UniProtKB/TrEMBL annotation:
One of its GO terms (biological process) is proteolysis. Pfam families: PDZ_6, Peptidase_S41. Its EC number is 3.4.21.102. It comes from Helianthus annuus. It comes from the Eukaryota. Keywords: Hydrolase, Protease, Serine protease. CDD domains: cpPDZ_CPP-like, Peptidase_S41_CPP. Belongs to the peptidase S41A family. Residues 208-278 form the PDZ domain. Residues 46-75 are annotated as: Disordered. This is C-terminal processing peptidase. InterPro entries: ClpP/crotonase-like_dom_sf, PDZ, PDZ_6, PDZ_sf, Peptidase_S41A, Tail-specific_protease. GO terms for molecular function: endopeptidase activity; serine-type endopeptidase activity.
Length: 507
């Protein structure tokens, strides 16, 4: 019975069923249910530093420029993202490829063919550099890393970074001998370490390659968003898992994704396309791709092989002498299945009679931040603010808002503790500041930074802090955390009264 519910605020978790109803548990206790694709996502990372957590690897707000000292082709482009299990990432990737040349609406056929050949040549040149990184000088690589930080970095300790001191750093490091690539990488590591930001760091070629192979699609592809000649977004395959489902079916690096199951994806974000691509493992998805910049269009059926596990556990409890049914949902991390499975759990609990909900985010270190944003939207009214993102310049503050009516309007308690971080803090602050939930437990971790991943021309990379998250009530989450409303669970009538009062004050 729910009189044991106060145990939830303690150190232990109650037993929670996976996403199965009682009948489903009896029939298939060890297998998760099938799920429909989730909605939109464009990807980022972050993770808190502690002895028990790996430093994380973000929403880039600007593309970095090529170093002035190098003549390498440089093509910043947004790609889809990744995450690590139980880690909290806000990573967005940039590659050193440059956007394809624009084609004027009145271009002749020969001009278009020339543009295609030019693009194909650029891709060949880029591949040549990837296959022979020794063609890139050590000085070029160091300068490239320096330039990325110069253009994008937002310091957590501003006293250790300024344009003047960073320019001096460039002169110092380029004044040293760089006889080997290993030496150049060591110089970049020391250069980034001098910033005093634990999240800004160097990735070796092996580390970057491993990160870029992370599959969120379920078919073994990573997508990047690039503008076309009209400024609209088109999606290209940035990376393929060798011998993965898409690669085996005939998808190739550089292919443009045109449609998924008949849905045109032009103008859609990588998150939206990935959400359509996702589906139950061993099912098929049809994709239409254009090979290369000017190649043929092909329809391909690909079998999904999604390996992500459900992070959602739920059960129905009763309190107030059985008069109130409480839907308890624990969310362990924000992976590619988080939103879909949370929607499934909430709908099932509503169908079972739940009139109030508990969302347990304790020890949830985050994960895919965009999943957190999309989950927060499930509880908010159209137009309400989920989170603000702030860049280096104070005026560069952008808001992310809910676009539709909420899935859940019932009172919500969100359980938090000192290990509630990043995407979890976005959800907690969004629901709290919009008077949709009260927070119970401990102050949260305080991880509110955005990192972007940039690929360098020798296949290595740098992770750079480029922004931070600010709550709807304009609280800087990073380093501060979010204070709970209660340390112990209040009565549900008190929860309803507090939320009602909050809504009247805001209205």
């Amino acid at each position: 019975m729910f009189d044991r519910f106060s145990d939830l605020v303690g150190s232990g978790f109650p037993f929670c069923s996976p996403l199965l109803t009682t009948n489903e548990q009896n029939q298939n206790h060890n297998h998760p249910p099938t799920h429909k694709p989730a909605k939109k996502m464009s990807i980022f990372f972050c993770t808190p530093p502690s002895s028990s957590l790996s430093p994380p690897p973000t929403t880039p707000h600007r593309h970095h420029k090529p170093p002035t000292s190098t003549s390498l082709p440089h093509k910043p482009s947004l790609i889809s993202s990744l995450t690590g299990a139980a880690l909290s990432f806000n990573l967005i990737f940039f590659s050193p490829l440059s956007p394809p040349p624009s084609i004027a609406a009145d271009s002749t056929s020969s001009a278009v063919q020339f543009e295609c050949r030019e693009e194909d040549q650029r891709l060949e040149d880029e591949q040549r550099l990837r296959n022979a990184p020794e063609l890139v000088t050590n000085e070029d690589i160091v300068t490239e890393a320096w330039q990325i930080v110069n253009d994008s970095f937002i310091g957590t300790d501003r006293s250790r970074w300024s344009p003047q001191s960073w320019l001096q750093k460039k002169e110092d490091v380029l004044g040293t001998s760089l006889p080997t690539r290993s030496k150049a990488h060591d110089v970049i590591r020391r250069m980034l370490s001098s910033l005093g930001d634990p999240y800004t760091r160097f990735l070796s070629p092996a580390q970057f390659s491993k990160m870029a192979r992370y599959d969120m699609s379920g078919i073994g592809v990573n997508l990047r968003e690039i503008p076309d000649e009209n400024g609209e977004v088109k999606l290209k395959v940035l990376g393929l898992i060798l011998d993965g489902p898409a690669h085996t079916a005939g998808v190739r690096q550089g292919d443009e994704l045109l449609s998924v199951n008949g849905v045109n994806v032009k103008g859609k974000s990588a998150f939206e396309a990935l959400s359509i691509l996702q589906g139950p493992s061993e099912t098929s998805v049809n994709i239409m791709v254009k090979h290369g910049n000017c190649g043929p269009v092909q329809s391909i059926d690909v079998q999904r092989q999604l390996v992500a596990k459900t992070p959602v556990f739920y059960r129905l409890e009763q309190t107030d002498n059985g008069n109130t049914k409480v839907g308890y949902v624990r969310l362990k991390e924000f992976n590619a299945l988080a939103r879909k499975d949370l929607v499934t759990a909430m709908k099932r609990l509503q169908g079972m009679g739940a009139s109030v909900f508990v969302l347990d985010l304790r020890d949830n270190l985050g994960g895919l931040v965009q999943e957190g944003i999309e989950i927060a939207k499930l509880f908010l009214n159209e137009g309400e603010t989920v989170i603000y993102t702030a860049g280096r310049e104070p005026q560069n503050v952008k808001s992310i808002v809910a676009e539709t009516s909420p899935l859940i309007t019932a009172p919500v308690i969100v359980l938090v503790n000192r290990n509630t971080a990043s995407a979890s803090e976005i959800v907690a602050s969004a629901l709290h500041d919009n008077c949709r939930a009260i927070l119970v437990g401990e102050r949260t971790y305080g991880k509110g930074l955005i990192q972007s991943v940039f690929e360098l021309h020798d296949g290595s990379g740098v992770v750079v802090t480029v922004g931070k998250y600010v709550s709807p009530n304009h609280l800087d989450i990073n380093g501060n955390g979010i204070d709970p409303d209660y340390k112990k669970l209040p009565a549900w009538n008190e929860v309803a009264e507090r939320l009602s009062k909050c809504q009247k004050q805001q209205g």
